[in-house]
Amino acid sequence: MIKYLFSIFLTIFLLMGCTKTEFSDVITMEEFKSSVLANDTIVLDVRTEEEFYGPLGHIDGATLIPIDELADRMNELSSVKDKTIYVVCRSGNRSGRGKDILNANDFTAVNVNGGMLAWDALANE
Fold it and tell me: Cα 72 to the chain's mean position, in Å?
């Protein structure tokens, strides 16, 4: 009986140890701003230059690489390949594509859903 219980326990333990930890590749702007954003956070803005410097502004320290140029300019991010890159755009659509491009090329990227529209809304609360 003890061998049987031990076998069940061991099987459950091994199965739990082999399960992959969930990594969320999407975060809300509120979560990002309140618990992730710091001086050393890597932020990639995939909007156009006009948007980056436009009315919604940009996050201090963000790197600008427009989504249409990202595939050709990923080498500019090689120095932060070992870190998580938080991708932003206006609303979260282009940053979702940017996150997918980066993750497909062995980066760890997270889409900041809601984008700069949500950043602006949080600033105006």
Answer: 20
Q: Tell me which H or E stretch contains 42.
A: strand 42-45
Residues 75-99 pLDDT 10s: 999 999 999 999 999 999 999 999 9
Q: Which CATH number fits domain 21-123: 3.30.2390.10, 3.40.50.720, 3.40.250.10, 3.40.50.20?
A: 3.40.250.10
Dihedral over alpha carbons 65, 88, 109, 94 (to 10 degrees): -80
Q: What is the 3-state secondary structure (H, E, C) of 79-117?
A: HHCCCEEEEECCCCHHHHHHHHHHHHCCCEEEEEECHHH
The region that residue 18 occupies, defined by phi over 0 for left and psi between -120 and 50 for alpha, beta otherwise, is alpha
d(CA 96, CA 16): 31
Q: Which residue ranges make up each domain of the chain?
A: 21-123
Give pTM, 2 decimals.
0.80
Query: In this structure, what token pair is assigned to residue 21?
Result: 């930890």
